[in-house]
Amino acid sequence: MEIEKVWAVCYSATGTTEKVVMAVAETLARKIGKPLETVNISAPAEREKERSFTATDLLVIGTPTYAGRVPNKMLPYFQTKLTGNGALAVPVVLFGNRSFDNSLAELCAELESHGFHTVAAAAFVGQHAFASKLAPGRPDAEDIVRAEGFAEKVAEKVQTLTELSTPIQVPGDPAAPYYTPLGVDGQPAKFLKAKPLTDLDKCTKCGLCAAVCPVGSIDPADVASVPGVCIKCQACVVKCPTGAKYFDDPAFLSHKAMLEANYTRRAEIGLFL
């Protein structure tokens, strides 16, 4: 297949998904010898833009896994703002050491239904946004090496394609329900309405939390106020320079404790070619 441009498109509130997507995309562009263009849709304004591609484009499209699926607040972007027109795509999901469940299958299905042709796919591990004890520091050096090796194989596959192969097959059910978070008691942990709090003794009112919120829910004029919906991405917590943002919702903390008690092993990544 004749490729003219490689694209890196990702939603990455805390930056972990972006690391993997860029490692794959940069290696692909280098191996194919074509330019790379990046699109980060973490900011609300970027998700308002419609983007259309052609059969000479190759996209690496990434998102983290939320409750076993594509984040529901990001799903409309993939459904309404991207048009493939025969472009080749490499869907990539990141999961926080528990499981990617059905997120990769869902992303593949959405891309296929909007004019993309999936030629490879991958599920990588990243440090869990809720709990730093889960996959700490991942994607680490080993993960990045594997991402680059995966990209080299994708480049070889794309360059030897003379006609479109069948869509890539990945595990999971794109129509499966969301994973139900559990607490330490094994019962559903209901923290949908939980929102980040602010330690006013630490807060410098720099406004960074409002700027990095991917759904624009924090009031930039009063960063302790969160009038909008919170998707628990933890961008404000992770990126606050003074550690002023935190969650104290009991159900949220119980789910975090359950994860830390059960999912600290080194989870394996999944590569599909």
Report on the structure:
This protein is α/β, with parallel strands linked by helices. The chain has helices at residues 16-32, 75-80, 103-113, 141-160, 208-212, 235-239, 250-262, and strands spanning 5-10, 36-40, 51-52, 57-64, 82-83, 88-95, 117-118, 121-125, 197-198, 245-246, 270-272. Strands 1, 2, 4, 6, 7, 8 and 11 form a seven-stranded mixed β-sheet that branches. Strands 3-5 form a two-stranded parallel sheet. Strands 9-10 form a two-stranded antiparallel ribbon. Strand 1 (5-10), helix 1 and strand 2 form a beta-alpha-beta unit. Helix 1 crosses helix 4. It is globular and about 60 Å long.
Write the layout of secondary structure elements.
Blueprint (H helix, E strand, L loop, with lengths): L4 E6 L5 H17 L3 E5 L10 E2 L4 E8 L10 H6 L1 E2 L4 E8 L7 H11 L3 E2 L2 E5 L15 H20 L36 E2 L9 H5 L22 H5 L5 E2 L3 H13 L7 E3 L1
Helix pairs in contact: 1-4
